[in-house]
Design goal:
The structure holds 4 protein chains of 4 kinds. Helices cover 83% and strands 0% of the residues of chain B. By secondary structure, chain B is mainly alpha-helical. In chain B, helix 1 runs antiparallel to helix 2 and helix 2 packs antiparallel against helix 3. Chain C has one domain. Chain C is built from 3 helices and no strands. In chain C, helix 1 packs antiparallel against helix 2 and helix 2 runs antiparallel to helix 3. The longest helix of chain C has 31 residues. Chain D is an all-alpha fold. In chain D, helix 1 runs antiparallel to helix 2 and helix 2 runs antiparallel to helix 3. Classes of the chains: A mainly alpha, B mainly alpha, C mainly alpha, D mainly alpha. Chains in contact: A-B, A-C, A-D, B-C. Chains A and D meet through helix 1, helix 2, helix 3, helix 4 and helix 5 of A and helix 1, helix 2 and helix 3 of D.
């Protein structure tokens, strides 16, 4: 038994030191492409850290977003930078000792505070356990996200929408000269896309009882769309105008409608327990669709237009 | 068995961190991308071992996601950056 | 420990050796094209052996199915990505290593 | 040393490294990566502190907050990257200069 605990501790120590070392390397590397690849590897190790901290829901979200979307977003942005910009010498760092000292003091202070926190703090876990039966789902994280603190999720969907509005108001439509798609990429995408859609549906359904839910499912679905865009499918021509807008607002609109209805009856987003399960599923389906389309549109980087619209 | 799962997982984590040397050294962008692809596979193996050791089936779903999405970053690299982007 | 446990132990350890071979190849081989071998060592054989070892311990057939699905996906992605990276590099004029 | 404390300290370390890089480096992509690393540090601290329950199940509220945070981070990163590309188009380099230009 003693040996097992020691081995787990060594694993944790190696993972922690690996994370810190990777962060240092990626932030101080001369070459920006290297920094991006290291950042993707950093996300991989973060997922392992979530696993060690008993947070499988967070690990799923990190895997769905870190492995698929973040890397693709960074690669696409890097490709748009002027080429001489990609490996510039780092700033002269000789004069930063005062800053280093100050940050070291801040880190030491924070470390001391965390160290002096009590060993055990139940937080809200008892309240969640007591109310889980009336929430309509069995996974505490889903219950918090869509029932107990549903307003957080509502506002989060609004933030996603705002980010997309920002990108659309800035975004520059550029016709990148793309190489023709080879048979290997086509086959790969043909195999992966249906599976990605299936896994998204599975995660959405599983979210009620096990780790999973709207965020993870939405991110996986977004990854499928990003893959199709990368493989040259004209998704940006298909999803335009009213259809696109409807999908973008499906999540927030369902949420707001439900918030209004519950406000008439009792309290903001307090569902009647006998309907809670169904309402959460409805919200999750709408939120998954909106999250997926919003994230894919963020990757696209400009507002797709119909042919009729003036450019 | 517990000891073995943990031991192999620890060994694979060491392997992964050693492989980072290739990302740091390059020389080409394609080399770095390839190395990070290998990390994805190693992470899948570690997750499956931990799923068995700690009896947490959800970790298999995390591994499944890594396996499914491993190609996305690499395809983004091939389609957007290509391998000539930097040669030293 | 039963016979299947011993078999699992053997499979897991052999799998770990293949992962080690993959890392050594990644670090020591002279050029991009030879380093591609590292990917196949770990993906195809190393992970395959590990999954066989874990499948022997699995509690249900559904778990075995999921494990095999994961292996298949890693194989597909590994093969596809290796091809895309290599053919891209070849087109850009990265020359294969010659002794 | 217990797990929660170890990962909390790693989280603080990541936050400090990210903050340093954010201040020191001029290139906008480095700044975006630095903010992401800082965010990961904060998330790690939150989840590590959520583990300090008496039961084996950790507190689910920080977990839900971090999942929300991860999705918001990727959206904010996408917006920041678009801004960066725009700056690079106007300035011919992805940096903000000290002098205000007309």
């Amino acid at each position: 038994m003693e040996k097992v605990t020691l081995l787990i501790m060594l694993f944790d120590l190696l993972l922690g030191l690996g994370l810190l070392w990777l962060a240092w390397q990626l932030l101080e590397s001369r070459n920006l492409f290297k920094a991006v690849v290291l950042f993707v590897a950093f996300g991989l190790l973060m997922a392992l850290a979530w696993v060690r901290l008993d947070a499988p829901d967070v690990a799923l979200a990190e895997a769905a977003i870190g492995a698929g979307l973040t890397g693709a977003l960074l690669m696409a942005a890097l490709a748009k930078l002027p080429s001489r910009d990609k490996s510039e010498p780092l700033a002269d760092e000789k004069g930063h000792w005062l800053l280093r000292l100050a940050l070291l003091l801040v880190a030491a202070g924070l470390g001391y505070v965390v160290h002096s926190l009590p060993e055990s703090a139940p937080g809200l876990s008892a309240e969640i356990a007591n109310n889980l039966a009336s929430s309509g789902v069995n996974n505490p994280v889903t219950a918090v996200l869509l029932n107990f603190r549903g307003y957080d999720t509502l506002l989060e969907l609004m933030v996603l929408m705002l980010a997309l509005l920002g990108v659309w108001s800035l975004g520059i439509e550029r016709s990148t000269r793309e190489e023709p798609v080879g048979p290997v990429l086509t086959t790969l995408v043909q195999f992966l896309t249906p599976l990605l859609i299936l896994v998204a549906a599975y995660l959405l359904w599983a979210g009620a009882d096990a780790p999973g839910g709207a965020f993870q499912a939405g991110a996986v679905l977004a990854a499928a769309m990003v893959l199709l865009l990368l493989a040259g499918w004209p998704l940006q021509g298909l999803l335009t105008g009213v259809a696109l807008r409807l999908m973008l607002v499906a999540g927030p609109a369902t949420f707001v409608a439900l918030a209004g209805l519950t406000l008439l009856d009792a309290q903001l987003l307090a569902y009647p327990p006998q309907h809670a399960g169904k309402l959460i599923l409805l919200l999750e389906v709408a939120a998954t669709l909106s999250i997926a389309v919003t994230l894919a549109a963020l990757f696209l980087g400009y507002r797709p237009r119909t042919n009729k619209e003036p450019g | 068995m517990d000891m073995l799962y943990l031991g192999v997982a620890f060994f694979l984590l060491l392997n992964l961190l050693a492989g980072l040397w290739r990302v740091l050294r390059g020389p080409s962008a394609a080399d770095r991308m390839l190395a990070s692809q290998l990390f994805g596979t190693t992470a899948v193996a570690i997750l499956l071992l931990l799923a068995e050791r700690f009896a947490t089936p959800a970790l298999r779903d995390v591994a499944l996601l890594f396996a499914l999405l491993a190609a996305v970053t690499a395809v983004a690299f091939v389609r957007r950056i290509g391998s000539s982007h930097e040669r030293q | 420990m039963s016979a299947s446990d011993y078999l699992s132990v053997a499979l897991l350890i052999t799998g770990a050796v293949f992962f080690l071979a993959g890392t050594v190849g990644l670090l020591r081989f002279p050029d991009l094209y030879t380093r591609l071998h590292a990917l196949t060592k770990a993906d195809n054989v190393g992970l395959g052996l590990m999954i066989a070892g874990l499948a022997l311990q699995a509690e249900s057939w559904a778990v075995v199915g999921k494990l095999l699905l994961i292996w298949g996906l890693v194989l597909l992605a590994g093969a596809g990505v290796a091809h895309l990276i290599a053919s891209g590099a070849l087109k850009q004029g990265v020359r294969p290593w010659k002794k | 040393m217990n797990t929660a404390l170890l990962y909390s300290l790693v989280g603080i370390g990541l936050f400090s490294l990210g903050l340093y890089a954010l201040i020191v480096h001029a290139h906008l992509l480095r700044k975006i990566l630095a903010i992401n690393v800082m965010g990961s540090g904060v998330f790690l601290l939150l989840i590590a502190l959520a583990k300090r329950t008496a039961t084996p199940l950790p507190d689910a509220v920080p977990h839900a907050m971090v999942i929300t945070g991860i999705v918001v981070t990727v959206a904010a990163t996408a917006l920041a990257l678009t801004l960066m590309v725009r700056v690079a188009m106007e300035n011919h380099r992805a940096e903000l200069s000290d002098q205000s230009q007309e």
